[in-house]
Amino acid sequence: MTLAGEGLTEAEVAERVERGEVNDVPPRNSRSAADIVRANVLTRFNALIGVLFLIILVVGPLQDGLFGFVIVANTGIGIIQELRAKRTLDNLAVIGEARPRVRREGRTTELPTDRIVLGDLIALRPGEKCVVDGEVTEADGLEVDESLLTGESDPVVKRPGDAVLSGSFVVAGTGAFTATRVGRQAYAAQLAEEASRFTLVRSELRGGISRLLKYITWMMVPAALGLILSQLVVEHNDVHEAVRRMVAGIVPMVPEGLVLLTSVAFAIGVIRLGRRQCLVQELPAIEGLARVDVVCLDKTGTLTEGGMDVAEVRPLDGADEAYLARVLAAFGASDPHPNASLRAIGAAYPAPGDGPDAWRLTATLPFSSARKYSGAAFAEPDGTPSAWLLGAPDVLLTAGHPVLAEVDRLDREGLRVLLLAHAADGLPPGGDGRPDPGPRADADDGRADPEPATRPAALVVLEQRLRPDAGDTLAYFAEQDVDTKVISGDNAVSVGAVAAKLRLPGAQHPVDAREMPADRTCLARAVEGGTVFGRVTPQQKRQLVGALQAEGHTVAMTGDGVNDVLALKDADIGVCMGSGSEATKAVAQIVLLNDSFATLPSVVGEGRRVIGNIERVAHLFLTKTVYSVLLAVLVICWQVPYPFLPRHLTLLSSLTIGIPAFFLALAPNRERARPHFVRRVLRYAVPCGLIAGVATFATYLLARHHYSGAGALAAETSAATLTLFLIAMWVLAIVARPYTWWRVGLVAAMGAAFLVVLATPWLQRFFALKLVGAVVPWTAVGVAAVAGVLLEAAWRLVARRLPA
């Protein structure tokens, strides 16, 4: 729109900047580098490991403190990956951020939101978000949705002098407002200052890991205290040796790498998706979309491209084609910010411009998704007034009208049909610049109030452009057992025809939302049984999403228009196209900046990679924790020296958990995400850890009975280390399934590395590992083999008795 006011001068802007009256909103999507470093370094487990590392530095030798350097390296990797993810998020956020149009010194320019100052004159058009609080100065059919702030879904009519709040968005009409509160003083900023920051919000994966860490802490504290007292009593003649073995018992109880790898996996997911022009506004959204089992799609902008073409205009009741062309030309030029339909009409029927044959616009009725039509009134070249409506035929015509039969036939061909109708009594209320919010749903039957008296003039037939990648994407979801529901405000038959062209199962039986039951239970059944839903109002979209969630589904909603905002907000995961309105981008967790629906499988794939691989490596970390706690308990009960030094467990953890887990956590994984993460991980890790702990301690006791003399403890430790390594490798081999060439190579490489340590003299000395004789080493191998058979049996038994 053309703003009447001149706006602020550059001098006034500079003065306000000097006073700090700038829209310095809290940062979104990204925390500072200092916050990232602090979050990765200042953790409970890093503090514990750091204290133990300092103790080892005091008592020596240095090789028993290797675990400290591993923690430093792992934490460094986590910081680097999160900083890379921050940079990716920040760069993509700049691409996708709102750039409101601001009037200054008589010129309208797009500015970043943080350059708006108090008193700026800001233009509004459909789909745009109010980025600051203000007072309306101009309004032309302006309707604002404040549901994100107040919860009230009905649009609010705004006239000059009315207040607008940041966070609301325009659903119809145009206007302008003067900024009265900016930055942290704005209403939405006060509500969302904390929530809009980069946060690792709750998710099943992170919540599950937090619960696991809580359980582990409860186990660690008594085990560690008992181990400390035990080793001081057993090794009372050598305090340094007692301290080293006490540290060796505590360190492996800490699954510090599990938290680290989760953060790294999420961060790398953000980076990978960023390369595909996908902005993940909340990290767990990657995980959430992987858990989705129902995807609700809006047809326009998702299955079809934004553009349309006029296929034909069919005059009705003998209307003159030349006259209709002039009406359509005038109508197409009536809206300065036309939707896709009006753009297609304007392209097919360009306005002649000013002159004696020009039609003068006298009033408009903006399109509303609730009304399903728009209107315009003109003074024709001879001065004759005329008013016209353009919209859904089944809304503008009474039920049973003969024209609707032809409309249904065209709809079944997948064409979009609009009715151009003469408004005999002029535009309905709101056509003089005071828009009404459109028809309201009746509480009894959900039908709209009677529409204005109209005389049909022509059917405008539009061809919709299917997205070339939509069919393949729908097929992907079908293969992954994800149900697809198409929810559109367009005619149900037309939407069904479009979906049928894309081979969507169930598209042949579209459902008209106006005929759906109001009862929540019946509505849920109807939604479960249907695939394509047409004539859905914004409020009904929200109800459909809620009905699916009430049935236990995890629902993703895609959309790009303001009529999708309520459903996007309520869905478990909201996905918005990059060309969508600012309102939809504000509430969506994922924004497809390249407008490619085909990017969704990549997001699902990243989520499944993160969830599946973290669950895979969690088995390794928790198995280690279980056998470490069990070994500590057994040592306390038997009152013997702890069988390992820190260097032994550092070596074992690196080769059987740390290095393999890093590769496994970042590997491709297309397994569908399943619920009950904690239960599923513990049911495997606990029996594996118990078998490993008992078998290792058995070897240790056998070795204590066999060896004697000065080097007995070192020989006993070496034998126990061999058994534990073989068992841990067996667990790794189980977790790495199904095998691929690189996974087989990874397991083999870890085994070869351990053999190198055993065969290299200086590494033997460095790690204090030397197998003595043949009886005990082969006994250690035999015990490990028996434990391996038990591991396989336990793995299969648990999988069979407790299916996921």
From TrEMBL:
Keywords, ordered alphabetically: Membrane, Translocase, Transmembrane, Transmembrane helix
Keyword Disulfide bond found: no
Record Pfam families: E1-E2_ATPase, Hydrolase
Residue span, P-type ATPase A domain: 101-194
Positions of the UniProt region annotated as Disordered: 425-453
Ranges annotated as spanning the membrane: 41-60, 66-83, 212-234, 246-271, 626-645, 651-669, 681-703, 709-732, 744-763, 775-798
Keyword Transmembrane: yes
Subcellular location: Cell membrane
Bias kind Basic and acidic residues: ranges: 433-452
Superkingdom to which the source organism belongs: Bacteria
Bilayer disposition of the protein: Multi-pass membrane protein
Name of the protein in question: Cation-translocating P-type ATPase
Source species taxonomy: Bacteria, Bacillati, Actinomycetota, Actinomycetes, Kitasatosporales
